[in-house]
Amino acid sequence: MTKIADQTLQEYLTQVAQKSSTPGGGAVAAVTAAEACALLSMVAHFTEDDLGDLIDRTNKSMTNLLSLAEEDSRAFNLVMAAYKGDGELELALREAAEIPAKIIRTCYAHFTDLLLLAERGNRNLISDVAIAASLFSAALESSRFNILINLRSMEGDATDLMREIMNIDQYLEDCHRICDQIREELS
Questions:
Q1: Does residue 16 sit within a domain?
Q2: CATH number, domain containing residue 157
Q3: In whole angstroms, how far apart are CA 75 and each of 6, 10, 36?
Q4: What are the CA-CA distances from residue 55 to residues 6, 42, 51, 58, 147 (Å)?
Q5: Which of 46, 79, 105, 150 has the most CB atoms around it within 10 Å of its CB?
Q6: pLDDT by residue (tens digit) across 11-29?
């Protein structure tokens, strides 16, 4: 199977739409966050300030997120195999839950970039900053669901994974606030 990063958009969407569990919601969440990073990078390129560090961070995150999309599919397949008796279920569930936790951390890492570009980004591209915030919101909420579905079947201590999702509501509020500010600016 061709890696998600190497597929055309049509190939990727066709693969997601197939009667197959992978790639599924976890991969889609990772790709969604990568799209948000791509928009931040694009806006940074058109902003007069020197934002080379921001561009480097977003490019690195895009690559990492596309790798996480691949890892999510692999982890899901391990969970399914473990349910059939091939492998340790608790370990497979933990690994499957850790991938969306990494997506969450990556989204959090770009919150200051969102704030910076909402304030100082090229005003002709400010709607792209709002769209990036919306995409990060979708990736965060999706990742929370993916952690929760794995936690539901775990028997061991998952305090660390619960901590990963504790602050999501605050970040979602912050993303919505950025969108509201931009919407007000555009009205």
A1: no
A2: 1.20.120.680
A3: 20, 24, 24
A4: 21, 8, 6, 5, 29
A5: 150
A6: 888 887 888 777 888 999 9
